[in-house]
Inverse folding.
């Protein structure tokens, strides 16, 4: 499996002038209005006791709270319902500052399993207190339904219906993830063999 590209790799690509062929900014969180529409979905919907949600901070969209494993809980998430047609692109690029924990980018399309939306996830590692740029290729997204891995459900970037973030690393305690921007990117063919 290809790993997401982090800051150092990205910086070297910029220096060489080969970062990506094209990007499209989906969200730039530079004022409170840019965070409108983001909602929290935590394990309380299943009896858990985790807390968390979205807020605006001076550096962007902040996803923070406290993860709890009580009552079979263990996840906190934020999401925004929106339709995106990204079939010309190869993945999602994030600029984030975290706490050293591993988070997930979550995308839903019009794909369904037993009538319910299929979730596609891509994990990324954060570095405590440091801004990193992470590329998550669409080809690496894993389809699942309520934690159950699925097959024969390829990701269709032209039919995105929801964009979100989740923490489910089975480590109880406080967490904070700041998100400055979300972009769609086209991979530079010259970099394909380096992944």
């Amino acid at each position: 499996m290809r790993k997401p590209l982090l800051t150092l790799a990205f910086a070297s690509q910029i220096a060489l002038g080969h970062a990506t062929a094209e990007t499209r900014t989906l969200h730039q969180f530079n004022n409170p209005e840019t965070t409108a529409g983001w909602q929290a979905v935590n394990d309380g919907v299943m009896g858990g006791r985790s807390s968390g949600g979205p807020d605006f901070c001076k550096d962007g969209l902040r996803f923070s709270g406290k993860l709890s494993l009580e009552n079979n809980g263990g996840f906190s998430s934020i999401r925004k319902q929106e339709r995106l047609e990204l079939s010309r692109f190869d993945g999602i690029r994030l600029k984030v500052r975290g706490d050293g924990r591993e988070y997930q980018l979550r995308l839903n399309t019009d794909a369904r399993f037993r009538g319910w939306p299929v979730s596609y996830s891509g994990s990324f590692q954060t570095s405590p207190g440091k801004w990193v740029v992470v590329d998550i290729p669409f080809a690496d997204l894993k389809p699942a339904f309520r934690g159950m891995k699925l097959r024969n459900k390829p990701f269709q970037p032209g039919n995105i219906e929801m964009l979100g973030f989740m923490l489910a690393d089975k480590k109880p305690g406080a967490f904070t993830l700041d998100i400055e921007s979300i972009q769609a990117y086209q991979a530079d063919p010259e970099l394909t063999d380096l992944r």
Q: What stands out?
A: The chain is about 5% helix and 50% strand.
